[in-house]
Amino acid sequence: MRIGIDVRYLSHGLLGGVHTYVRHFVPELLSLASDHQVFLYADTKRPFELSGLPAHVTLRRMTWTSPLSSVYHDLFMRRQMRRDQIDVAHFPANYGLAPKGVSSVVTLHDEINLLPLSEVLGREFFRGNVKSFRTAAMRFYLHAWSTAAVQRADRILTVSKHAADQISRHSGIDASRITAIPHGLSHDLRRITDQLALGAVRTRHDLPARFVVADALKNPAVLVRAWRLLPEQLRLNRRIVFFSRRPDVLPIVHEAIAAGDARLLIRPDRPDLIALYSMADAFVFPSWIEGFGIPVLEAMTCGAPVIASNRGSIPEIAGDAALFADAEDERTLAEHLLAVLERPAVRRELQARGYARAKEFSWAKTARGILDAYQVAADRRALARAA
């Protein structure tokens, strides 16, 4: 096959779940696809993140001068794909349209872009995230592109069975056209036990001796409410350490900091985040909605006991290796925190289950599933031509 992949997430300096997905499955797939010709389509916004590409891989760099360049590439990347005579086009970041006659594979990471616009914008306004016309316009844009992309795709990939069910429900697409292929885990993830290394991170960020760690963008309010329900003596020498890839966190985080209950780390580098997971008494992830929830597996790999929301795909991914509460149930969350913080046996059991669960996921498995999906899409298109 001649395979084309939109890899602009590797030339934009972006963070987050989609970047993690593209950054890790692509190298594994290039290794597996040595019998195929692969074309990678990036732009020139930032240096390309992968180096040492093998001989069967061609990198196309599209000129980027402003945000409008991305819109232009959305519209016209297919022209370059047509010139490259690809058989299968993969769009791993929720949307993209293949040239006419070319098999199309789209990875939709969750159903958000397919929800009615009134619901999506209503949720964003409720959370205080829509602050400008630009954000609202982007929501409209992504909704339109994702809706068109999944309707025209030969194969839709997603990252969990829960996400597949939601995509089918909101798009009306037959579930047989959707394949759930879980994420893998980064090779750098491991539990750090070197006390000197951990101590350096603790000193650099002025961390307390005991803490739980949480993502400040994933429903922090319920964790703060649960924390205030814990006995004062238990909270006395402990803190919540929030991390965030963006500085615009909800006011409740700053309220917790002002009360002496929390710390906030903005964009901690990767080694420091791994150290946080390794030192934490627990990782708390009460997210409202997740297509996958890779931080859960990252924390498990580093030995952090996990307490998480029972919404979305999280129970599917965590299995029996986490304690669950509803995303708005601070009382049950407080009970789980109390159990983990006061009972070493509970921490050890969750830690052991977490290690075992995380080993079930790998990027090599993810890449194999994606390559198989390319073949299914190509075969489907060939059968359609024959018919």
Overview features:
Rossmann fold; 387 residues; elongated; alpha/beta; 15 helices; seven-stranded parallel beta sheet; 13 strands
Structure summary, number of beta strands: 13
Distance between the termini: 21 Å
CATH classification, class level of the largest domain = Alpha Beta
Percentage of residues in DSSP E strands: 15-25%
Give me the strand/helix succession: EHEEHEEHHEHEHEHHEHEHEHEHEHHH
Order the strands across the largest sheet as they lie in space: 3-2-1-4-5-6-7
Q: On the 0-100 scale, what is the average pLDDT?
A: 92
Number of domains: 2
Q: Note the total helix count.
A: 15
CATH hierarchy: architecture of the largest domain: 3-Layer(aba) Sandwich
Secondary-structure class? alpha/beta
**What is the share of helical residues?**
40-55%
> Radius of gyration, rounded?
22 Å
CATH superfamily of the largest domain: Glycogen Phosphorylase B
- Stretches where pLDDT is under 50 for at least 5 consecutive residues are none
Characterize the main sheet: 7 strands, parallel
In short:
The chain is of the alpha/beta class and 387 residues long. Helix content is 47%, strand content 17%. It has a seven-stranded parallel β-sheet with strand order 3-2-1-4-5-6-7, sandwiched between helices. Strands 10-9-8-11-12-13 form a six-stranded parallel β-sheet, sandwiched between helices.
